[in-house]
Amino acid sequence: MSSTYINAALRRLVASRAGIHCEYCHIQEDDTFLGCQVDHIISEKHGGLTVAENLAYACTFCNRNKGSDIASLAADGTLTRLFNPPTDDWASHFSIVGFAVQGLTPIGEVTARLLGFNTPERLLEREAL
């Protein structure tokens, strides 16, 4: 989360673009207990700007787990960037198998792991929905 104030018009734009769901895990905002927040994809501390192209609509769990991270290590040890909602196609990087969100690419794999898409609590949440 950012210390920068995100004005209401920019927040509405990002939420509308997202279809009012988390752009990372795809949960609908109405199905979350804590709602969604606007996330800086590249955090301000890494030089990210508060512009629509650098903002994502994220559920509280994805936003907190992501923090200011922009990459993680893939299974082969390669530093791999995280999923970028405004520019990456979700279905190219993830699929839903049962109640789990599976990474289809190294980007999908590191994002799913780092953001905790498949923790027991998140799986139960999806099952209940």
TrEMBL record:
Keywords: Endonuclease, Hydrolase, Nuclease. InterPro entries: HNH, HNH_nuc, NA-targeting_endonuclease. Transmembrane segments: none annotated. CDD domains: HNHc. One of its GO terms (molecular function) is endonuclease activity. It comes from the Bacteria. Residues 9-64 form the HNH nuclease domain. This is HNH endonuclease. The lineage of its organism: Bacteria, Pseudomonadati, Bacteroidota, Cytophagia, Cytophagales.
